[in-house]
């Protein structure tokens, strides 16, 4: 209307051109994108007014959508992303409480036995509450130190629970392995010496891995904040389990030694008294005396998970006819993982971090559908005085904007000078014509906000200016926008013109510039630390080798399968990959080191003993962990859905390796158990020779040998 000429190709979507037109005239467009810039002067009042205006604008758009059903209206304001990002934490509150209740129930039931003396339901319950208390303490420290909450921190309770309950269940298993005829203090000491060394090592690995994520080398601020909180949570987890849960274990040990009921805390009556009571009373007060025979030295073998592993599963998984199917299963697993790893995508899509039904997601989906042929509008800001009238500077600006469609006062001004045949080769003429003539025209008045003038005496200067760049892209807009950033930013450092480029979506693109390399680097450093720590602890080198192979297999499996499950490499998936490394070490390390240090005659017997010793704790922890993830499915948010997918894959792959792949593969490959067999035979032979010599020398005292 005012004669203004501007490029609007990036504002039209679903364009149909007039057929057979030479100059590509637009016939129709299915969508139009309009952008409003609110003017602010940096004051707090102005910001509040702007925020209020945006809020009213979004309400008006919603009202207009209801009044005009034939139109589809979508709005996005400067606060929309922040609001919709934090909406996830509000939507997930109730579901996290449901998760906690499910974990409490699973831990309580899995710690129970029919034996009312040796059953430990309250220890399972107190173990989960211990992790909850430590997480609340960590959250308190975070907020006291002026931490800023964001929705990515929703993963911390699940991460902390996965590691903390492993220590709880391992301590319970360690207690079950102790001899009942020992004083309870010695039993607690034996349980601690058996379990806390490995738990200390895995906790330190968690701390180091997330410490690297919290270091200045991490390029994603959200990951850095998350890892800092995770380090505090892991530290508090360790001390709470070591102290608070340890004291609960001592108290439970005293109750057991004094023959108190594990639930009702009353004295368990004698067997003769129970035999005279009804069946329901015998069931409630049964301490396992009728099941225990003189052949059984460990009454805890009646725990239902241990009984299932010992009597059924161990025999089945080590069966020679099952092993070929396990090998085929692993080959399928490895092939799918490798296929997924070749298709990894950077997660520069902001939709993955927002609530599913939020206005921002609807807006982003429509924008991707209709406006994916152009990059976001890139602000090009020149932040130092330039000699715009100089021909060399003009050529440099043309070179920088080459390949872009530009919305620029500079190009329009140069065109205006050429059309009017006006000469402006010096500073005074250039600025004088710009202020008095060009910016007074109705079609060019909107450029006033793109130039900042300063006055020194009678002389005017241009101290800063801006223009807008729009690039033509293919369907993969996000990838090409990141490539544009990578090309433009180095130029801002080496060119004579000092400039910066910016668009609000660059905040997300910057986050994921190194999203693939960072978890790989952290995983590599973590595996290297496993080697170093186990080397100093003088553990079997083949155990280290198997642990590295297992952790690498699980990590690559999770990475490949989550790619096949359409999970992008965003902030949450990166954190889950860091966690998967430690989660795998947490569960595989005790199983593997028990196997390589075992002294049984055969590998099969060694793996059976390893599963019997650590299988219960692993199964208890992973089942509690996976059951606790189920409520996340019902949170209408892409962030929590990504968290669910990644943690489900981490738990499932770890369970698959601990109970299926490792028990079979360890029976094929080293370490060999033949040297243990030879040593035992040599000792037996030596003892027989000594006995024979004694018999020959003392024929009258054979019975004394």
Automatic annotation (TrEMBL):
<feature type="transmembrane region" description="Helical">
    <location>
        <begin position="520"/>
        <end position="539"/>
    </location>
</feature>
<feature type="domain" description="SSD">
    <location>
        <begin position="96"/>
        <end position="251"/>
    </location>
</feature>
<feature type="transmembrane region" description="Helical">
    <location>
        <begin position="546"/>
        <end position="566"/>
    </location>
</feature>
<protein>
    <submittedName>
        <fullName>PTHD4 protein</fullName>
    </submittedName>
</protein>
<dbReference type="InterPro" id="IPR000731">
    <property type="entry name" value="SSD"/>
</dbReference>
<feature type="transmembrane region" description="Helical">
    <location>
        <begin position="234"/>
        <end position="252"/>
    </location>
</feature>
<comment type="similarity">
    <text>Belongs to the patched family.</text>
</comment>
<feature type="transmembrane region" description="Helical">
    <location>
        <begin position="617"/>
        <end position="635"/>
    </location>
</feature>
<feature type="transmembrane region" description="Helical">
    <location>
        <begin position="156"/>
        <end position="175"/>
    </location>
</feature>
<keyword id="KW-0325">Glycoprotein</keyword>
<feature type="transmembrane region" description="Helical">
    <location>
        <begin position="122"/>
        <end position="144"/>
    </location>
</feature>
<keyword id="KW-1133">Transmembrane helix</keyword>
<feature type="transmembrane region" description="Helical">
    <location>
        <begin position="90"/>
        <end position="110"/>
    </location>
</feature>
<feature type="transmembrane region" description="Helical">
    <location>
        <begin position="647"/>
        <end position="669"/>
    </location>
</feature>
<dbReference type="InterPro" id="IPR051697">
    <property type="entry name" value="Patched_domain-protein"/>
</dbReference>
<keyword id="KW-0472">Membrane</keyword>
<dbReference type="InterPro" id="IPR003392">
    <property type="entry name" value="PTHD_SSD"/>
</dbReference>
<feature type="transmembrane region" description="Helical">
    <location>
        <begin position="572"/>
        <end position="596"/>
    </location>
</feature>
<dbReference type="Pfam" id="PF02460">
    <property type="entry name" value="Patched"/>
</dbReference>
<keyword id="KW-0812">Transmembrane</keyword>
<dbReference type="GO" id="GO:0016020">
    <property type="term" value="C:membrane"/>
</dbReference>
<feature type="transmembrane region" description="Helical">
    <location>
        <begin position="196"/>
        <end position="214"/>
    </location>
</feature>
